[in-house]
Amino acid sequence: MIILGINAYHADSSAAILVDGKLLAATEEERFTRVKHWAGFPAQAILFCLREAGVTIDQVDHIAIGRDPKAKFDKKVKFLLKNPMGGIATVRNRLQNAKKVSSLEDEFAAITGVPAAAIKPKIHQVEHHRSHLASAFFASPFDEAALLSIDGSGDFTTTMIATGKGNKITVIDSVDFPVSVGSFYTSFTQWLGFPHYGDEYKVMGLAPYGEAKYVDKLRDVIQFTDNGLFTWNHKYFKSAKDVIVTYGEDHIPVVGTLFTDYMEEKFGKARGKGDELTQFHKDMAASVQRFTEEIIFHIVNHLQKRTGLKNLCIAGGVAQNSVANGKILKNSDFENLYIPSAGHDAGISMGCALYVYNQLLDQPRAASIASAYTGSKYSNEEIEAYLKSRDIAYTRYSDDDLYEKVSARLIDSGVIGWFQGRAEFGPRALGGRSILADPRRIDAKELLNSKIKRRESFRPFAPSILKEYVAEYFELADDVPFMEKVFPIKKEKHAVIPAVTHVDGTGRLQSVDKEVSPRYYNLIEAFRKKTGVPILLNTSFNENEPIVNSPEEALNCFLRTQMDMLVMENIVVER
C-alpha cells in the first residue's frame, strides 16, 4: 500500500511517501525552491518522493493532506459571528487557503498529467494537530504513550493532548485558537526585535545570556488552568480577527505584529531594527524561555497524572524548543520522550500519511523511525560529472583515506562542508548536509561566523558526539539522534570542547549511531583517534538560505564563503 502525505499552503510545505507503512522518502519544498519556510503546493517534493519510491501517482493508493478546513467548524463560525464587522482580510485569506485545500486534485493533475477526477477519491484531509500527533507517536518506538502537539495554530487549534495505543490515537482535549503558546513566544520574539517567520530560535539562543528576572510579570500574560492547559490575557495580543499569518503569491509566510500597545506599556518599548541588544533584552529572553518551559511542564505533568503513562511523544513548532525538551524528563514523571526529526510543520506530511495508514485504514505499525535521512542523494559519479561541467578541480579518495584527510584538516583549523548520503528531513543538519569544525577551538564560533554563517554571535553551534561517549561528556545520558534536546555538559569538559559549550554550560546534543550514520560516525571516530575527543562541531550546510540539497548548491555555498574544504561523498574540493 502506497500513501503520499503532504503539507501544503502552510509554512514549511513538504511531502512524504509510505510504502506498507515504511517511510521511504520525505523532504521540504524549500530545499528545491531555495526559499525558507516556503508555503505553497509542494510540487517538487511530491515528484521527488514519487521518484524515490519508483511509482507514479496512479500507483498511489491514498493521498493525505495535513489540513482539514471542516475541523472545529462550529467554533470557527461562532468566532466569526463575534466579529461580524472586523477581520475581513483574515476571513478572505483563510477562505482562499481553504479553497486551495479543497481543490488539491487540480494541483496534482497539473504536475502529473493524471485527470483530477482520478485523483480526488484518493484524498484524505487530516486535521493539523492530529497529523502532528501521528508524526510523533506512530514513528516512535512506544506501543503506548501520552501525546502532545503544541504550536502557533492549525485548524483552529493551538494545543492538543491525547493518548496513543497500538495503531490508534485518542484525543483528550485541546486549546482553541487564538490562545497559543507558540503565539506567546512569537509575540515576544517580535518584541525583542526579531520580526521574521521562524526567528524564535534566536530568542532561545539569546536566553542563556540573561537572567530570568521577569517570569512573575509574564504570569499575567498566560495563566495555567486546572485541566492542565492554559488561557491568556487578551490585552497583550492583537485581535485574532486581524491577519496573523499570510501567504502571498511568493509563498513566503509573513507574520503580522502580534503584540499590542498594552504589552509595550507593561514590558517597555519594543526593540526596533538596529537598536542595541541590551542586558534588559537578554533578561527578557531568559524570562520568556523559562516561562515557556514552565507552561510545558504544567501541561506534561497534568498529562502524566491523567494518563498514568511513562512514555511521552511531542510534536509541533514548540517541540523545536530543544532547551525545554532537555528538561522535560527531569521535571516530570515521564521516563521516555520521543520527538521526530521534523517536529515542526514540515513533519505534518509524514504525520498525515501515518494517520491514514494506521488510524483510518487500521494497518499495523511499521518499525520506529530512528533516521532522518530521507531526502536527496547523489552518487560519486553524479558529483564528478557536475564538477567537471563547472571545471572544478577535485580528488576522489577511498573511504579510509577520506576520513584520514578530512580529520587532519579539521585539526588544522579547517572548516569543512560535509555532503554525504541522503539529506535530513527537518531543520537540523545531522551529518548529511553539515558544516564541521574542531570543537576544541576557542575561536571556532568566531571563525565560522566570519567565514560562513555571518549570523548573531549569541547563537550556539552543536556537538555531534559518538553515542558511546555521551555519558562521559554530558550530565544526562540519552539517545538524541535528531539534535532535539539540550543537556548540561559536564563542567570538567567545558574547557575541552569550548566551541560547542554554550555560555550556560549546555550543548544541543546529537548522539551519532554507527548503524544510522556510518560515514559521519567514521569521520568522528577518525577525529577521536587523533585527538581523544569523540565530538565534532556541527552546524547546517547553508549561508542564510535553506540547507543545501544538491552538489550545485553545496559548491556555490563553498565558493561564496571562506570554507576550507568541500567533501561530497568521496570527492574533495580544496581551496
What does this structure look like?
The protein is of the alpha/beta class and about 575 residues long. About 35% of the residues lie in helices and about 20% in strands. The radius of gyration is 23 Å and the shape is globular. The protein starts with a strand and ends with a strand. The model has no long low-confidence stretch (mean pLDDT about 95).
Helix content: 25-40%
Radius of gyration: 23 Å
Tell how many strands the DSSP assignment holds: 23
Poorly predicted runs of 5 or more residues: none
Structural class: alpha/beta
Major β-sheet profile: 9 strands, mixed
Number of helices: 20
CATH architecture of the largest domain: 2-Layer Sandwich
**So what's the CATH class of the largest domain?**
Alpha Beta
**Widest beta sheet: strand line-up:** 15-23-22-16-17-21-18-20-19
CATH overall fold name of the largest domain: Nucleotidyltransferase, domain 5
Broad shape: globular
What distance separates the N and C termini? 49 Å
Number of domains: 3
Task: Identify the quaternary structure here.
Answer: single chain
Rounded mean pLDDT is 94
User: What is the CATH superfamily classification of the largest domain?
Assistant: ATPase, nucleotide binding domain
Fraction of residues in β-strands: 15-25%
